[in-house]
Amino acid sequence: MVSKEQRQRHLARAKHERQAVRRAEARVKAKQRNALIGAVVAVLVVAGGGTWVATALDDDDKGKTTAASDELPITGNTKPRQCAEALPGQPENQTHPTEPAMSIDTKAAYEMVLKTTCGDITIALDAAKAPKTVNSFNFLAEKNYFDHTKCHRLTTGAMTVLQCGDPTGTGTGGPGYKFADENLEGATYPAGTVAMANSGPGTNGSQFFLVKTASALPPNYTPFGKITAGMDVLDKVVAGGTEDMSEDGAPHENVVLNDVTVTKKS
């Protein structure tokens, strides 16, 4: 027969074991929670280092850590893609130490053509009001800097814009030099505007955005061109939405600049 003392020791031992199990479970949950928080912070840090437009007008994955992660869906967007496959080739990720010397005629008209996987976009460049910007695009286009680069960001909320011009496709890349803002006084961003993305005053590089619908952005982003043909290309990209179905993310359509040219028209 079990004595009262033995029964009390048994109950105390059982209670201790239950407490140990609960503490172990709590440690596991804490680790999971901290891992999630760490992942979110990492995402914010990466995003914060990019070139953004307005409130934010973006390292490759280090590899998946578990076999189960390979099975996770990478997108919630199941719309069929409408754009063509990109031409063979990879961005060169060029680095140029200084802003190019002025080589354009600021009194002439220039035209830039983006030959994308979703169609061609023609842009009239404003060399008179944004000479440094147009000169930079002329220089980079001659170097084939933009060829095979992917338009990495689409916003569809308060403003609808497509952002391009980063060879890394992360929103953090650039040509190695930066140049001053231009044409900001009274700047507005109606549909068809082409303007520079930046991460603050005087940080223009190679990233730019195409405005699909009129946006009430503050005059902080150098407008340097106007789309004269190809708004239907933006329609196609916007209709596809973002890869994760959010209002701000990578486009679902694979928008790649196969070739970019700048031509003096007159």
TrEMBL record:
It catalyses: [protein]-peptidylproline (omega=180) = [protein]-peptidylproline (omega=0). GO terms for molecular function: peptidyl-prolyl cis-trans isomerase activity. It is an enzyme of class 5 (isomerase). Residues 119-262 form the PPIase cyclophilin-type domain. This is Peptidyl-prolyl cis-trans isomerase. The chain crosses the membrane at residues 35-54. It comes from Yinghuangia soli. Belongs to the cyclophilin-type PPIase family. Keywords: Isomerase, Membrane, Rotamase, Transmembrane, Transmembrane helix.
